[in-house]
Write a structure and sequence with these properties.
The chain has about 1050 residues and is α/β, with parallel strands linked by helices. It has 39 helices and 27 strands.
């Protein structure tokens, strides 16, 4: 068809295959006209433009402006500069066309789009007895509905016919093409069963890209013969390329002249069930030897099939060295082992077939999967410690995820809209490090893989954020990464709601997470997944490595719950993939299905075998130690790798990952273009985003900090949880990225934002998060929000319940993320709730965590100082320790001096004693000092010490000004005295017992934390030391 109506109009040529009947050609022409293409005329003279001839394409001096062509010609046309890439948005070019479907068509070369699937051209499905009669997609579409039947072309526009292969349809129990007997004679005879069958086959045989067409048998695809592809000797050099490389030397004549009676089948080698004893063992040995001595392993690795009968094998062997070798081996060994080639029947339940299938399945792996497995076991073996089982089992899942879905680039690891990947089962980190190396992270050279678990390496025993580029979260303690992922998905949903525009979507990424049986057992995992289900975080896709093994042994020892049912109860979409150690297609389809879910997070349960294809497969021995050289070599042999090579990456595998990296870099550049447009159209929002990314405040915070002078003048007492509420609501206006909430204690913690909105499924822009009674999950989710990189987060609970969340608090310090912990009800001062809720040991525990700053303010001004530090901190989490009971505003407290950790409230030139306290006990030492001065004539310095950690980093000169050498120091704190004596005081008045239930004033008296008892202890200390008290360390380390 050629449009030549006006010179200004583009020249369009849409070629219709000459196999079509005139009736079919006319039908297509009418279809085109009905669709609105009024200027396209039908030309019966095919000589005007033959899009099936490479000679015509290359010799034609004036190609049409727009023309249809077989996709197999795209590399040729691109190489010769005859076609240009298409830059337009596919969603606008083809409405309702999903990008991941398009990526699987044959229209891209090196991630560049050069064509659009010819949705209107006839796609021949199956040749009938008469070569002139075809049933077409278009015919069926006009009867069944266009949307339900039309697909992107498979490999080329109409000539590559559909065949099955073992790696796809055999695993689904579909081993043949659509039978000619059930193919509809007329379009109107097509029923739903046929439509479904056609959809299944078509989806299973898509080829990944035109450039990879000539290498498709290396990557698990058969190239069937089309009606013309074998006749054109020079078409893109395809046939010559295959012959030169000695692959499958001929394009298999499954269809076409002289081959119409050959029906493609899927076959495998099986044992005769009558074999017993020694002969049976000899047969099994033969199979292993067979794969070692021939090219059959290459055939199986590439997804090709062995024909099921001798006649067909003879036919293929006449044109193929590979099949000739197969035939030779069969003839050589058949008499020795009573071995036959039988047709595979998926409904057979013969145990021997299943046993042999287990041997064969190792050969069906993609070469990249085998590379990941062998590379990771080499890393663990070289380190002589580590966890090989998880990386071996999850390599197929990781490869499919990276190959087709995961978007992140080493060009900018901090790209806002990258997908996030979290390895919650962090012991499997060798797999993540291998992926970082393969995708081009300069900080992860091969030398670092060889330094796994070595001191100062970039490959520590569990992933560490900021330590290793490309790691999104510090994980290892099971369950943490699951909740971190929930926080990241929450951050994406919030940012998308706040900043995405109808025309420009800045945030639309996914969060992918690997987790294990151990994760699923952890309580915090259930907390996080329950929360995610309630929040409908559909951009969260989690992969559960269901290998049924823990350190102790089988999960049947302690974990027999129906996890799928449990997680569905949380509100998740659950997909199960059997044989996930080898079923790459099943994993791929599961991810596709998960991305279509819009109202729920998704859990993909991957049924794997720990230590797959090793001598320890299915055993706890594969979990946490090196496999040993024998087992490593066994794996390499099954993967087709030589046992002498270590840390080996085949060139074609590295090329494959290079293409993944190139694709993602291009996606990043496309997003950059979008971001530039966004910054010009929405400059205010863009500036806010940039400030958030730099963790900058949106203005000067200090003028906003309450000074509480009025409250002091009026003698008004306020609990520091209340002053915290006042400060938080004052500073949030300059912290646009601040979100947070409480573990169902909002009225007690006073963490709410006045006039603010809750974050809920229908209110994603809300900044207040109702975490529910999930302390550990809450903190880990908050960590995930911070890992995401743009938002700041705070969370609230009682100080005593910080013990529930200690694992996540500890990891925030290890990861250097500036979480803000609002921990109220900090002592026996909470009163009537009693000792179950009164923290004694928690403060010393928090102070013992490195890189965690604990601040216990005495009043409102010190609370402002605490928030000033927390708001400006970019790499240190902060615990704000706050009272339930009211406390006075103390004279001389200071916002900025709070940042020094300790400072003198009342001083004398020659003190007899120094009284130091934190939080609510500062008022006690102030009263005690007055008694000592007024009634005993002593000189007393009082010191408020809100933060040990901030004080420890001060210069020695400043420390000596606060704690004067030789002067005895008495500390007072309603907590365990652990850590005070010898470091900051010579005697500590504190809690050495649990508290009690009653009015807090009575409890203070009962345990002796009063001004009077402070005076008594001070007098004894003065009597003991005079002014010759031993020096204090002033630090947890020797200087």
């Amino acid at each position: 068809m050629v449009d030549q109506t006006q010179s200004e109009r583009i020249k369009v040529s849409l070629f219709l295959p000459n196999q079509l009947s005139r009736e079919s050609r006319t039908k297509i022409a009418h279809f085109l006209r009905d669709a609105g293409s009024k200027h396209i005329q039908v030309s019966e003279n095919e000589g005007e433009f033959n899009c099936y001839s490479d000679q015509v394409l290359l010799m034609n001096s004036e190609l049409p402006d727009v023309f249809s062509v077989d996709a197999a010609f795209l590399p040729l046309l691109v190489k010769n500069g005859l076609i240009a890439p298409i830059k337009e948005d596919l969603n606008q070019l083809i409405p309702n066309y999903q990008p991941f479907q398009f990526a699987l068509t044959s229209c891209t070369i090196q991630s560049e789009l050069y064509g659009i699937p010819n949705l209107i051209q006839t796609n021949v499905v199956l040749q009938k007895e008469s070569p002139s009669e075809f049933a077409s997609v278009l015919d069926l579409a006009q009867h069944k509905g266009y949307d339900s039947l039309v697909y992107p072309d498979v490999a080329s526009s109409d000539a590559l016919h559909i065949v099955t292969n073992y790696a796809s349809l055999a695993l689904q129990g579909r081993t043949n093409m659509i039978s000619r007997s059930v193919f509809p004679e007329k379009p109107e005879h097509a029923d739903e069963h046929f439509v479904t069958s056609y959809r299944t086959i078509l989806n299973a045989t898509q080829i990944e890209g035109a450039e990879d067409l000539v290498e498709s048998c290396r990557y698990g695809k058969c190239i069937p013969c089309g009606a013309y592809i074998g006749r054109l000797e020079h078409m893109c050099g395809l046939k010559c390329k295959i012959e030169d490389e000695k692959w499958n030397l001929t394009l298999l004549p499954l269809l076409g002249k002289g081959a119409t009676k050959i029906t493609p089948t899927v076959s495998c080698i099986v044992l005769n069930s009558q074999l017993q004893g020694q002969r049976k063992q000899e047969a099994l040995n033969y199979i292993q030897q067979f794969f070692s001595d021939t090219h059959v392993d290459e055939i199986l690795q590439r997804g090709l099939v062995i024909p099921c009968d001798r006649n067909r094998l003879n036919l293929w062997a006449s044109n193929s060295n590979i099949y000739r070798d197969v035939l030779f081996c069969l003839e050589k060994h058949e008499r020795e082992s009573n071995f036959s080639v039988l047709q595979f029947d998926p409904e057979m339940t013969n145990v021997e077939i299943q046993r042999v299938a287990k041997i064969l399945r190792h050969r069906l792996h993609h070469l990249a999967v085998a590379t990941l497995r062998c590379l990771t076991v080499d890393m663990v073996e070289n380190a002589k410690s580590g966890h090989p089982g998880c990386p071996i089992g999850l390599s197929p899942v990781a490869y499919v995820l990276w190959k087709y879905f995961y978007r992140s680039t080493c060009k900018n690891p901090a790209w806002f809209n990258r997908d996030r990947f979290v390895l919650s089962n962090g012991h499997g980190c060798a797999l993540q490090y291998a992926l970082l190396h393969l995708t081009g992270y300069e900080s992860m050279p091969m030398e670092e893989l060889k330094r796994l678990r070595k001191i100062d390496s970039k490959t520590p025993g569990h992933p560490e954020w900021r330590h290793t580029e490309g790691i999104e979260a510090t994980t290892g303690p099971l369950g943490q990464g699951v909740c971190n992922s929930v926080g990241m998905a929450l951050a994406e949903a919030h940012l998308a709601a706040r900043f995405n525009k109808e025309d420009l979507k800045l945030f639309n990424h996914y969060v992918f997470t690997f987790c294990s049986d151990g994760d699923m057992m952890e309580g915090m995992c259930n907390e996080g997944m329950s929360f995610a289900g309630h929040q409908s975080l559909n951009k969260l896709i989690m992969f559960y490595d269901d290998n049924k093994i823990t350190i102790d042994g089988s999960t049947t020892l302690a974990f027999t719950q129906d996890t799928a049912t449990v997680v569905r109860g949380f509100g998740w979409h659950v997909i199960e993939v059997v044989d996930a150690d080898s079923n790459l297609l099943g994993v791929k389809n599961a991810i596709k299905a998960a991305q279509l879910v819009t109202q729920k997070p998704s859990l993909i349960i991957c049924k794997t075998s720990i230590g797959y294809a090793t001598k320890h497969e299915g055993s706890a021995k594969a979990h946490g130690s090196a496999l040993g050289i024998d087992s490593v070599n066994y794996l390499k042999q099954l993967c087709g790798f030589g046992t002498q090579k270590t840390f080996f990456i085949p060139d074609q595998v590295q090329k494959d990952f290079n293409q993944i990296a190139t694709r993602n870099a291009q996606l990043y550049e496309q997003w950059n273009t979008l971001a530039q447009e966004y910054s010009q159209k929405y400059p205010t929002e863009w500036e806010t985003i940039m400030r958030m990314s730099r963790q900058e405040l949106d203005g000067d915070i200090e003028p906003l900090l309450p000074t509480f002078e009025k409250e002091e003048q009026e003698g008004k007492e306020l609990a520091t949880r209340m002053t915290s509420h006042m400060v938080l609501n004052s500073i949030i206006r300059v912290m646009p990225g601040l979100v947070g909430g409480s573990a169902d204690l909002t009225p007690s913690n006073l963490t709410d934002i006045e006039g603010g909105l809750d974050f809920q499924p229908q209110q994603r822009h809300g900044r207040y998060i109702r975490f529910g009674v999930r302390e550990h999950g809450m903190v880990a989710i908050s960590n995930g929000i911070l890992y995401h990189g743009l938002l700041r987060s705070y969370v609230g609970t009682f100080l005593n319940f910080a013990s529930y969340a200690l694992g996540a608090i500890r990891l925030s310090a290890l990861a250097h993320i500036p979480n803000i912990y609002v921990l109220t009800h900090d002592s026996i001062g909470l009163g009537e709730d009693g000792p179950t809720h009164q923290p004694i040991e928690v403060l010393p525990v928090l102070r013992a965590i490195p890189d965690l700053v604990v601040i216990r303010p005495a009043d409102g001004r010190e609370t402002s100082g605490a928030y000033l530090f927390a708001a400006k901190s970019t790499a240190t989490p902060t615990c704000l320790i706050l009272t339930r009971q009211n406390v006075p505003q103390i004279r001389n407290t200071d916002i900025h001096k709070t940042l020094k950790g300790a400072y003198v409230l009342e001083s004398t030139q020659d003190p007899d004693i120094i009284l130091v306290a934190t939080g609510s006990e500062v008022q006690i030492i102030v009263k005690a000092a007055k008694i000592l001065r007024d009634e005993h004539g002593l000189q007393v310095n009082t010191v408020s010490m809100p933060s040990w950690e901030l004080f420890e980093v001060q210069p020695r000169e400043y420390k000596d000004q606060i704690f004067i050498q030789g002067i005895p120091v008495l500390s007072v704190e309603a907590s365990s005295p652990q850590g005070w004596i010898g470091r900051f005081s010579h005697f500590a008045l504190g809690m050495t017992t649990f508290g009690a239930s009653g009015a807090y004033q009575d409890i203070y008296k009962k345990v002796g934390i009063t001004p009077e008892n402070t005076v008594d202890k001070a007098l004894k200390l003065i009597s003991k030391f005079k002014k010759s008290a031993p020096p204090l360390l002033h630090s947890s380390v020797l200087e």
